[in-house]
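Dear colleagues,

As part of the handover before I leave the project, I'm documenting each prediction I ran so the next person doesn't have to rerun anything. This entry is a single chain, and its sequence is reproduced below.
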Amino acid sequence: MSNTSMATHLLGMVLPSEIMDQIQTYLLHPQSPFQTYKQVALTHAQSALMMWWTRVMARLALWGVVAALVAFMWSRGPEQTVRDVVVVISKVMGFGAAVKDIWLEEYRQYESQQRAGSASRAAQR
C-alpha cells in the first residue's frame, strides 16, 4: 500500500465519510485547484532552485579563474606577466586582423555576386 492510500485509509477511519468525500474531491483529486496550485508552486520552486545553482556555479567558475590568474601572476612575477600579456594581446590582434581581412574579402565577393545577379535580371527584362 502506498503512503497516500495508507494516509487516506487512516483518515477515512477517523473522519466522517462526508468530510473524506470533500477531502478527496477538493484536495486529493488530480484536477482539484489545490493540486493545480501545488504543481505551479513546485514548478516555480524548481525553477528558482535551478537559477540559484546556476548563479552559484557561475560565481565559483569566475572566482576559480581569478584565483588561477593570481596564482599564475604570483609564480611568474610582474615583469614576465606583463610580457606574457603583451604577447597574448598581440596574437589576439593578429588573429583579429586576419579575420577582418577574410571577412572583407568574402563581403566584396558577395557584393560582386549581388551586382552580377542584379545586372543579369535587369538584362532579362
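The chain has four helices and no strands. The first helix runs from residue 3 to 14.

All the best with the project,
I.
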